[in-house]
Design brief:
- The radius of gyration is 17 Å and the shape is globular.
- It has a seven-stranded parallel sheet.
- 34% of the residues lie in helices and 13% in strands.
- The longest helix has 14 residues.
- α4 links the parallel β2 and β3.
- The mean pLDDT is 95.
Length: 241
Amino acid sequence: MIAMKPIYEPKARAKEYGDLAINIYTGCPHNCFYCFAPAVLHRKKEDFCNHVEPRKGIVEAVKRQLDKEHITGKLIHLCFTCDPYPHGYDHSATRKIIEAIKAASNHVQILTKNGINAISDFDLLDSEDWFGVTYAGYKNLEVPASEPNAGSPYYRLCALREAHELGIHTWVSCEPVLDAEDVLHLIEKGSYIDKFKIGKLNYHPSGINWKAFGKAAEVACKKYHRNYYIKDDLRKEMEKA
C-alpha cells in the first residue's frame, strides 16, 4: 500500500503547471541527461532509470483519495517525477488512473515524451483535458542523444496533431531548451498547439543567450498569436539589465 497520498499539490517551480499532480511510476527509463527527478527523490540515476513500475497500489489509492477528499473540478497533472507513458513499458495503470480522475469530474493534464503510446488513451479525454509533450528543440526529429530512451520528437508532434483534431487541448513544455532555433521554429509552425510553456535549461551549462532567446520567443508567440507562458526562471533572465 502507498503510505503517502498519491494526489498532491505541486510546490515551487512545479506550481506553474497545475492544481494537483500524481506521480504514477517508480522511475523513468528515458535517461534524459538533464533529469532532475533522481536528485529530488534521493536516488541513484541508474536505479531510477532501470526500476520502472507503477507505484504499489497506486490505482486504488487514487480512487480512495478522490472519493474521501471529494476531489472534483480540478486539473490534475500527470506526471512530474516520471513519465505517464514510460517508453517500452505497460501503461495500463495510467489509463486506469485517468478513468478514475474523469469519473470524479476532474480533468487531466498529461506531459509525456512518448506520444505514440499516449494516443491509445485519447478516447478518455475531452475538450477540458490537456495533452502535452516535452519539446526541448532538436537538430532532427529522431530520438536525440539527450533523451536516448524516450519516444521520438516526431511522434510527439504527431500525437499533438491527433489530439488537436479530436478537440483535446494541446500544449508543449519547452523546458529544458536545448536548441533555441528549433523551439522558435515550432512556435512559428505549431498552429495545432494551444499553449506553449517556455523555460530554459537549469542546473547545466549552456551556450544559449537566455535573455535574447526569451525575448525572441515572446515576440514569436505574439506574432503568430500563440497562447504562451514564460516560466519564472526564463523571465528573470529576460529582465536582467
